[in-house]
Amino acid sequence: MNDDTGNGKTVLVVGATGYIGNAVVAEAVQQGYDVIAVTRSSRTDRQFEGAEVVNADVTDPASVARVFDRRIDIVISCLACRSGLPKDFDAIDYKATLNILNTALEKGTEQFILLSAICVRKPDLPLQLAKLKMEDALIRSGINYTIVRPTAYFWVFDVQTKMIENGKPGFLIGTGDQARHNPIAKEDLAEFMVGCIDSSEHINRLHIIGGPEVPGNIITYKDSLMMIFESLGKEPKLVNIPSWLYMAVIRILRFLGLFSRKIGVFSEFLHITYYYLHDDMRAPGYGSRTFQQHVLNTTREKKTGSTRKRVG
């Protein structure tokens, strides 16, 4: 690792194997910091070039304490429960993250950068409530903090791409154009978060951030599906699911989830999805990568990969 721009400081990235955490590790390494990536398994070592990998159970305070066996100047927490029951969100997004914060305070860490989410603006779901509790704990802790609430990520909008590639229709809740977004690329978000390190304008601040507010990135969910169909050269096929029917399914699944964890987890996932697709998630713009270009690049890469396989 080099310290040309990182000033020899050590950055601990928690939640490093996640969608954003992985990008944050890469960006912090690129900016010259000594980076420690915290993971649950040593099998992920290869994906963190230039970073030291440390295994830890973030739900166990003793395991977390061992991660801080050397000086940690900055903590960037990207911990998030990807899916689960209400208690799972509280266990990871609040309690596990709080374990990291408490140890950072005890060991004299200078700054704690927390990845939250824009959806906490209208708290209703367990995920949102857990994140808000963690934000409050961080603000009250006394450590220099930065809280980043990004809008939706690109993956939220291209999650149906594989089905569309296989000839399936795209599914919309309602008309699909009831909410507008400016989603943010993981690389742009990582750049912003690492840029908050030791920055006076970001210390003890909460930032709401989205992707660039330009054509090709100010989109509805219907827009995103139309972009995917166009990039694949397919005739658009859309199925509209009435909002009342979608919510009725969620309520039924939530009841059935009392008897089956798998069904309960799925019902929470559907509820979170509804929130993101039904409510506007526009935020102040940052970065240069647009969803439209992301779709075109992804399609081009897949076509290039297929061509190479045939040639090989």
CATH H-level homologous superfamily name of the domain at 10-152 and 184-209: NAD(P)-binding Rossmann-like Domain
Kindly report how far apart the N and C termini lie: 36 Å
Number of helical segments? 11
Low-confidence stretches: none
Oligomer: single chain
Indicate the CATH class of the domain at 10-152 and 184-209: Alpha Beta
- CA gyration radius, whole angstroms: 20 Å
CATH architecture assignment name of the domain at 10-152 and 184-209: 3-Layer(aba) Sandwich
Largest sheet: 7 strands, parallel
User: How many DSSP E strands?
Assistant: 9
What percent of the residues sit in helical stretches (DSSP H or I)?
A: 40-55%
- Helical/strand content category: alpha/beta
Report the β-strand fraction as a percent range: 5-15%
Q: How would you spell out the order of helices and strands?
A: EHEEHEHEHEHHEHEHEHHH
| CATH T-level fold name of the domain at 10-152 and 184-209 | Rossmann fold
Spatial arrangement of strands, main beta sheet: 3-2-1-4-5-6-8
Characterize the overall form.
globular
Arithmetic mean of pLDDT: 90
Brief summary of the model shown:
This protein has 312 residues and is α/β, with parallel strands linked by helices. Helix content is 46%, strand content 14%.
Describe this structure in words.
With 312 residues, the chain is α/β, with parallel strands linked by helices. It has a domain at 10-152 and 184-209: NAD(P)-binding Rossmann-like Domain (Rossmann fold), CATH 3.40.50.720. The protein has helices at residues 19-30, 61-67, 86-107, 126-141, 154-158, 161-165, 186-195, 221-232, 243-256, 261-278, 291-311; strands at 10-14, 34-39, 52-55, 74-77, 111-115, 144-150, 170-173, 205-209, 238-241. The strands form 2 sheets. Strands 3-2-1-4-5-6-8 form a 7-stranded parallel sheet, with helices on both faces. Strands 7-9 form a two-stranded parallel ribbon. Helix 3 packs parallel to helix 4 and helix 8 (221-232) packs parallel to helix 11 (291-311). The longest helix is centred in the first third of the chain and has 22 residues, at 86-107. The two termini are 36 Å apart.
